[in-house]
Specification:
Layout: E1 12-23, E2 26-37, E3 40-44, E4 47-49, H1 57-69, E5 75-82, E6 98-106, E7 117-120, H2 137-150, H3 155-169, H4 181-190, H5 212-226, H6 243-254, H7 260-270, E8 273-280, E9 288-293, H8 297-300
Parallel strand pairs: 1-6
Antiparallel strand pairs: 1-2, 1-4, 2-3, 2-7, 5-6, 8-9
Helix pairs in contact: 2-3, 4-5
Length: 314
């Protein structure tokens, strides 16, 4: 009879939270210091192991987040399970599969605990922000990617690499698809152009502990796609807001600018908001009417969202 595998070989199960907010028109992610990364501490996501006392995965996640950041979570959805062998650098998992169940959480920013901090997510992905035009780092990254393609072992492999670069980074006139966040990070990782893969600088963004930047990339791509068919953006908005504030938050999340009148027409056609009786003069011009999310829209149709066109920057 075959002896059963020892318990020690069972995969470790962890929980990780990608907690996103939008404050002052800037998309933010909640980070915590993580020990055990080289000589010092690295930035990472709130995380911890699944414990026997946790009745469910989600309640375990909420407990870790409150313990590490003081942040109470509202909207939460399971994002992905990361389980590749040797996910932790330096063989810290002993070659075992270390599973991490990652969650996406959308909140309104609150003051975090002393050891945690809100950071712009473009700190980790500077090439994803097209609101001020083509990001400066993209030209340098493009040159390094082309050099990586040229260094391929065969002409066929070099062509495949160039095709992937064109698809993910919008080269050769194919356009920029803002939802391909994870694919771009994965390609940069494979090419050795991110600090987690040994790059000598942070041209492609600030490093994060373990594979937490891969989790963040997965969450950003999910959110950028989801705002087009679900009203999740309102989880990030205050109870009352102006249409201008709503547009700036959507632009911050997607990383591209939107035409003002087209955006307002789209919001009106979808019936996502309704006027309140209040106005605000904080816009700097004429007093603006404050709006609120129409929750009835959730009952009126199965996929209410902003229906934004696929954003493509030239």
């Amino acid at each position: 009879m075959t002896e059963p595998e020892p318990i020690a070989s069972a995969p470790m199960v962890g929980l990780a939270a990608v907690i996103l907010a939008a404050t002052l028109d800037e998309p933010r992610v909640l980070t915590v210091p993580v020990a055990g990364q080289g000589a010092g501490r690295a930035e990472g996501l709130p995380a911890g192991p699944l414990e026997p006392a946790h009745p469910t995965l989600e309640r375990g996640l909420r407990a870790w987040v409150e313990r590490q950041t003081g942040q109470s979570l509202g909207y939460v959805e399971q994002l992905y399970t990361f389980g590749d062998r040797n996910r932790r650098p330096g063989g810290e998992d002993g070659g075992r599969h270390a599973l991490s169940v990652a969650y996406l959480a959308l909140v309104r920013e609150a003051r975090p605990a002393a050891d945690s901090a809100w950071q712009s997510w473009y700190r980790y992905f500077p090439y994803e922000d097209w609101r001020a035009g083509r990001p400066p780092s993209l030209d340098a990254l493009a040159a390094r990617l082309e050099a990586w393609a040229a260094a391929a072992a065969s002409p066929e492999e070099g062509r495949r690499r160039l095709d992937r670069i064109g698809l993910t980074f919008g080269a050769a006139g194919s356009g920029w698809n803002e939802e391909r966040v994870l694919e771009r990070y994965e390609l940069l990782f494979e090419a050795g152009l991110v600090p987690e893969a040994g790059a000598p600088d942070a041209l492609a963004g600030q490093a994060m502990a373990f594979d937490h930047r891969r989790m963040l990339a997965t969450a950003l791509g999910r959110l950028r796609g989801k705002i087009k068919y679900r009203p999740v953006v309102f989880e990030l908005m205050p109870p009352a807001f102006t249409l201008g504030q709503l547009q700036r938050v959507v632009e911050a999340l997607s990383g591209v600018l939107l035409h003002k009148q087209n955006f307002r027409r789209l919001v009106a056609q979808q019936g996502l908001v309704e006027e309140t009786e209040a106005v605000t003069a904080e816009t700097g011009g004429r007093p603006a009417r404050l709006m609120r999310f129409r929750r009835e829209v959730l009952l009126e149709r199965p996929a209410p969202g902003l229906r934004l066109p696929s954003g493509r920057a030239g």
